[in-house]
Amino acid sequence: MSRTLTSLAALALATTPVAFAHGNGTHTAQAAQPAEVTTSDLGSGIYMLTGRGGNLGVLTGPDGTFVIDSQYAEMAPGLLNAISEVAGDADLRFLLNTHWHGDHVGGNAPMAGSGATIVAHDEVRARLTTDQELSLLGRDRSTPAAEEEAWPVISYATEMSLYLNGQTIRVHHLPDAHTDGDSAVYFEEANVLHTGDVMFNGSFPFVDISSGGSFQGYVDALQTLYDLTDEETRIIPGHGPEATREDIKALRDMLVDTMAAVQTEIDAGKSLEETLEARPLEPWVEDWASGFMTEEIFTSLVYTDLTSES
Question: Could you tell me whether strands 92-96 and 139-143 are parallel, antiparallel, or unpaired per DSSP bridges?
Fold first, then answer.
């Protein structure tokens, strides 16, 4: 095996969302260039915005505008313009962060400066207000606290509800999935769900073990999301195109099967390097490997998580 654990870790740290500093305006070259913002109308005053980073959800109407996630700081001007185009004169009132990663909170300060009150889970506020020491596949990295303007000023522990523009907005904490502070947001009357990064639609997901995430927690969280939805639900994933309930099931089933495949190698006493050599996830690569989440990195994350729990 030519690729060592150390080189895998270096590659992962250079390419995953965790590698991006947030809030203080410091970003890697990968995050430096803004991208075009695309707006999709989901009905009932709800929109999905895509650009560079996690997908945004927007609800707008006479009660004001509610936004889910903020991508990178460099994306803020384009995102604010796109929001203004659909919101008109409606005030920007709330910004909810689904978790703490820089591709979802990097634009917090500009949006707060435009009037948004930032809301998030307790663990998101805890991570954004303090320096974070992260470890991924044997490599360490420090992420500084965000600037104070980017901090959530309202946080919650388990569930919370908001009532805007004829929508009952249910915010659910999904523990120990992508991170330890994941939120899913469900618009009851419109039957629209924003999953945060507890859904990478059509690709291997990134499970941030260093931030309290776990693969079993991710599977459990996907089951929760599946139970919240029906065949008519329109779903905004954290990454990837608009999803359906069947996409949630497909992602969950893939995770169950790939975890079992790696566990078989672990039960046979194989080391990580021996497991990478065996390529237990090869049957899923064509359909699921995408972007930074290569077969090697995903296998390494699953192996690391499963052996840390045993």
Answer: unpaired
